[in-house]
Amino acid sequence: MNENLRLDFIEGVHKGFLDKNIVSNSTNIPRLLTNKEIPKEKVLSTLLQELDTCKEFFISVAFVTTSGIAVLFNTLIALEKRNIKGKVLVSQYLNFTQPEALKKLKAFRNIELKISTENNTHTKGYIFRKEDHHTIIIGSSNLTANALTVNKEWNLKISGLHASGIVNDVLDEFHRNFEEALVVTEKYIASYEELYIKQRVINRLEINEAKSEVVIKPNKMQQAALENLNKLRLANKNKGLIISATGTGKTYLSAFDVKNFNPKKMLFVVHRLNIANDALNTFRTLLGDTRTYGLFSGDQRALDADFIFSTIQTICKEENLLKFKKTHFDYIIIDESHRSGGDSYLRLLDYFSPKFLLGMTATPERTDGFDIFGLFDHNIAYEIRLHTAMQEKMLSDFHYYGISDLLVDDKYREDTRDFNLLSDSERVNKIIFNAKRFGSDSGIIRGLVFCSSNVEAAFLSLRFNENGFKTLALSGKSTELERVQAIARLESEDSIEKLDYIFTVDIFNEGIDIPKINQILMIRPTESAIVFVQQLGRGLRKAENKEFLTIVDFIGNYKNNYLIPIALYGDTSFNKDTLRKLISEGSKQLPGASTINFDEITKEKIYESIATVNMTTLADLKKDYQLLKFRLGRIPWMVDFLKYESRDPYQFVIYSKRSYYDFVFKVDDSFDNVLDKAKSDLLALFSKEINNAKRVEESFLLLKIIEQGEIEITTFKELIQKEFQYLVSNETIESCIRNINFEFYLRPKSSLIIPTPCNILLKHNGSFRFSNMFKEMLNDVCFKDFLLDSINYSIQVFKENYKRENFRDGLILYNKYSRKDVCRILNWTKDISSTLYGYRTVNEITPCFVTYHKSNDIEETIKYNDHFINPSVFAWESRSRLKLESIEIKKILDSKRILLFVKKEDGEGTDFYYMGDVRIIEGSVKQSYMSDSELPVVHFNFQLEQPVIEELYDYITSGSVKKK
Q1: Which SUPFAM superfamilies is this protein grouped with (predicted)?
Q2: Of the residues 203, 220, 250, the one at which a domain ends
Q3: Three-state secondary structure of 809-854
Q4: Strand ranges in 733-823 using DSSP code E only, listed in sequence order
Q5: How far apart are CA 190 and CA 187, in angstroms?
Q6: pLDDT means per 10 residues in the chain (964 residues)?
Q7: Adjacent-strand bridge partners of 548
């Protein structure tokens, strides 16, 4: 037995069962696995990790559902490709296991599937054989999505060597139960399915009998929105905008508010007749016969109805507007109000003068520069975006699978929309194969397919029909009747009439309601995050007996692949590191039981897109600045971008190469505050050198002195300790003075007219205060406001990143830092980052900077063999031409602190992930030589203070994202 492994297990047992306070980096510490919202934890994350690293697996559960298979599906496919064998034992207990789930499991060639027909079988255990040990998870979680992601569950994860008693007891029990169980055959599934359906019918009848007459009441979102709408009117506001994700009940919300408002006449405006008709029926259902209802569209002109439902195409015509007085309607509702910047809508809004105007939209952000928010006087009554709606369980769960775009002649197609490539029969067959393989919740597919062109949609529909499916292709030329009939057939329960798929390009992006959709195929490049969410939203409405939505996205070598995580995770910061983190974490940050799954090729394509795309073009920055300005009705501050979860505002600083003030001055013609050159230069220095959120002390100190005029050093230390639970050293205090006075700052040749160092911060009799020169500058309101905004941005972002348990003497584990940041945080007197390179020892502290995947074109003399041996041990090499007796090596060996910083590759930029402090493993320091040369180097093995978190380790160690 490996002695290190034995010691690792002993250490894990010691911490897990004897003393929680001992410091241990063992990977085998017993753990309680639960599903938590704060901090984010899911049993699923650990289960996927164990499956991904095992040599064989054994699962014994009472229940298995299609949702439980869906959350593991991508990993199970990968295990099948690697021929990792598994045995799965399920139970017929209460006939809860779904037949469709058995079919999906049985389809895997590497899985041996059996079922226990004894009614007392109620196990929940997951066993994973590794190279030299077993990991066991036993507890309360069945193989269902809810059990693995959201339910209150307790599961104990333990590990044991192959010879351990507990491992052998568990394996013996599993194998005994497995031997006694029945092999799941197609014949068994067919007979069980009959029993399962009968049981469901009985359950449904019991539920229906128990139901009393349903009283329609506002849901949680609608209640909050109704209260806010009432507050607007009490404040004499006559306009309001509701921003609400598709499927969250906007139409019912408007009907509830109309009921509260009690208008004599109401107008509901939409862009399609079928939506107008649906809205009319909703209002009638809720309000009953207390009002008369009518359509004003096509050949219908219900002029005398109390509540009129009209298409914009009809009502906006001048001759139709003139049929009504300007004050005819007390209440007007504009559905899909992001369209209201169009001429027809503006004509309507200019003509009528209602007592209240309500706009409703899922996506108010127009891309044509029109201010929708201004149309509603910036009165946002309520906002609930997709992820919040998912959190509130207002929408169906979904399972997204991003799979690598299909092969043509064994080659991935390039970034192209050439339809001729798609028409290859092999590729079409693979689309059909994956549509079947990923399937749906019930096994009965009701699907939408989004294509790149109408030609493509028609062709694929034809080919699907030739393969036994029943499908239709719809385009902008399809009549209203054709669309309505197609939707009815897609939702039909009649097996003869029912359609399997509707193929389209974009006519179903919005304004269509097909709750029963349970599969979406995306066979087109992602050009817009907004359109992506709109198309995703088509299947997110809840429906009776619908458990979840399946999305299969065929991802090619498209430059816009970076938009996929932006859309799926709802992150609009355009921060590349944030997007990488979200992808590496998979479904961890996703609310509810929904999951996001990428195969390895697809994941690398998205990483590549993130690495190569420019997310901070002037056009994009101006667009996001303008959108937030529209929303607020004023010039936004940096902290506003944080509050409204918009673009990372530090990108404006980076783009301007100076400060946010400089960006605003450049792009906003309405901004007329001009700072003199000295103040502008100083803002630039503060923005780039101090308020970058990498260290909080300077920003916090500036804020307190601006607020109070002066602060005692002891008081400042106490405030930091109270806010962040750590003590500020005297060395850090001296460093703050140097930094704020820009003594640390190494001034390059530039156009700055302000001298550095500056006389800004003074220390006198144990207190801090500003110099008279700086106080004078602060009398300029514009300068002070922009400085405070920069300070508050820095403090807020630091707080968001800060976790006390991850804080290590100024640095936060797994945050990113530049060499300059590290010099500053280590309290060095000068910025030596330009000559720091791979490492430097200063005052017995050695920070090491590693680019994990070296570029092919770098010199042989710096192609060091730095790499992770495992998540706890890092192999590192000194500079070339050094020997064990070198002074430089002695300094490293004598260091009191060694810090490890790693980035995946140069394409990531100049920042490195802080992996933690490390110690040199005894006996690991050896004389070595660089590969392919005779240059001497010294080899070290570093022991990390704790194992690198799995998602970051996987991201760093996986292949380079650069095109080979």
Answers
A1: P-loop containing nucleoside triphosphate hydrolases (SSF52540), Phospholipase D/nuclease (SSF56024)
A2: 203
A3: CCEECCCEECHHHHHHHCCCCCCCHHHCCCECCECCEEEEEEECCC
A4: 761-764, 767-770, 807-808, 811-812, 816-817
A5: 5
A6: 78 88 82 91 95 97 96 97 97 92 97 90 96 96 96 96 95 96 96 89 60 71 94 97 90 96 97 90 93 92 95 94 96 83 87 97 78 93 90 92 69 48 72 95 96 93 96 93 94 95 91 89 90 90 93 87 92 92 90 92 90 93 95 97 96 96 96 93 96 98 97 97 96 96 79 79 95 96 98 98 94 97 96 92 97 74 82 93 95 97 91 97 92 85 92 85 41
A7: 397
727 with 825, same domain: the answer is no
State the DSSP code for 312.
H
Write the single-letter amino acid at 585.
E
Q: Which two tokens stand for residue 711?
A: 């602060």
Structural domain that includes position 7: 3-203
Spatial distance between the Cα atoms of 160 and 167, rounded to a whole number of angstroms:
6
58 occurs within a structural domain: yes
The number of residues in the chain equals 964
Q: In the structure encoding, which two tokens stand for residue 690, read together?
A: 């101090």
* Residue 828: HSE in the Cβ half-sphere, 13 Å Cα cutoff: 22
For 472, the 3-state DSSP assignment is: strand
Whole-structure pTM value? 0.90
Same domain, 339 and 470: no
State the burial class of residue 259 (Cβ atoms within 10 Å of its Cβ: 0-12, 13-18, 19+).
middle
CA-wise closest residue to 71 among 567, 434, 438, 328: 438
**Residues whose CB falls within 8 Å of the CB of residue 126, separated by 6 or more in sequence, listed in order:** 47, 50, 57, 58, 59, 136, 137, 138
Cβ count within 10 A of residue 52: 15
Domain CATH code at residue 186: 3.30.870.10
The dihedral through the CA atoms of 189, 192, 198, 200 has a sign that is negative
Q: Name the amino acid, one letter, at 578.
A: T
